[in-house]
Amino acid sequence: MKIGIDTFACDGGKSGIGIYITQLLKRIPPSGALYELFGWDFDRFAYSETAPNLEFIPQCFINGRTANALWYLFKYPQFARARSYDACFFPAAHRRLPYHTPCPAVGVVHDMAAYYGPRKTRESLGAVLRMVLPNSLRRLDRIIAVSDWVKQELIDLVKVKETKIEVVPNGIDHSAFYPRPRNEESVVLIQPFSFRRPYVLYTSRIDFPVKNHIALIKAFGIFKERTKYPHRLVLAGADHQGAEKVKEAAAASPYRKDIFFTGHFPGKSLPELYAGADIVVIPSLYEGFGMGVLEAMASGVPVACARAASLPETAEHAALYFDPKNEEDMADRMVTLTTNREVYRECRRLGLERVKSFSWDRCAERTLAIIQETSIA
């Protein structure tokens, strides 16, 4: 049995989807089905450490979304036949897919942000892909949704048959994200950064308006005004759509000296960043799965998050919730977590209990089983 794994839209293993594919590749058994990777030529060594025994077949040597879309349309079917794949796996099926595949295909949908809500809050996808992708999703043999929220969106927005969809939640790396001892040092050193404690943390690409950074910046100002606490706001993530508007809002804040942008933050240092935070706030208007929620809770840090999309499904009763469009409401939860130690300790306890439900081992085991079931169906 020979299975191809598409890495084109996995960001070289450096994004949330990159973490997903990296964790999956680590858990492919050395015997059994033969797996191989295909994707951008410049990604040929991106997974060599994670999956040293898997062959990587570079494809589509002209960079860019348009060239890649054309490769899927005209070159992929020929490529899949030439490689004699029994099945193909698309870990980022919500971003990129062929219109037709000559072998059985399984895709993972992490979110439907490109189709959700008003146009101004949608994630950029491109006009052609927005038109073609729904048909491509419906043509897949099986779809893995990372949450019940995403599953329902696939049914409602894309009209995918429910029988094709199975929910397999993401996991959390418990060997990396865990509570660390709190010392008395006022500074957290994470090369090349130095963070003065206490700080409020939000890890997400700087994407306006979907990730809702501006509302958080305003809520942070209200929180500072009410408490007079020395907290800083750390916004960890690379610049994306509308980042300049977010930075303008930060510059206009009376507490701008307490707002810190890290830019792209190295994934290997994220556990330390979480562990050093006083609280984590997740104000996003849309998330297909609350990865930041799990990372914070596993680190023993209480979470306040938006009552939006899949976030309540991920956090359940272990977080404090707010209306993401109401800065006062957001600030209220920040004040509660930092002033009420009983609530703080209870959220921390419930969070540590909640993350026990999520495992990359379980995620990988079921995902690989679905791929193999599809290849022999």
Provide the β-strand percentage band. Answer: 15-25%
State the CATH class of the largest domain: Alpha Beta
Number of helical segments?
12
Question: Judging by the overall fold, what is the CATH architecture of the largest domain?
Answer: 3-Layer(aba) Sandwich
Mean pLDDT: 92
CATH homologous superfamily annotation of the largest domain:
Glycogen Phosphorylase B
Low-pLDDT stretches: none
Measure the end-to-end span. Answer: 12 Å
Largest sheet: 7 strands, parallel
Number of strands: 15
Structural class: alpha/beta
CATH topology of the largest domain: Rossmann fold
- Structural domain tally: 2
Describe the structure.
The chain has helices at residues 16-26, 65-82, 127-139, 148-157, 213-227, 243-252, 270-276, 291-298, 311-315, 327-339, 341-354, 360-375, and strands at residues 2-6, 34-40, 55-59, 87-90, 105-109, 142-145, 165-167, 187-190, 193-196, 199-203, 232-236, 259-263, 279-282, 303-306, 320-322. It is built from 12 helices and 15 strands. It is α/β, with parallel strands linked by helices and 377 residues long. Strands 3-2-1-4-5-6-7 form a 7-stranded parallel beta sheet. A 6-stranded parallel beta sheet has the order 12-11-10-13-14-15, with helices on both faces. The protein has 2 domains: 2-171 and 359-375, Glycogen Phosphorylase B (Rossmann fold), CATH 3.40.50; 187-357, Glycogen Phosphorylase B (Rossmann fold), CATH 3.40.50. The longest helix has 18 residues, at 65-82.
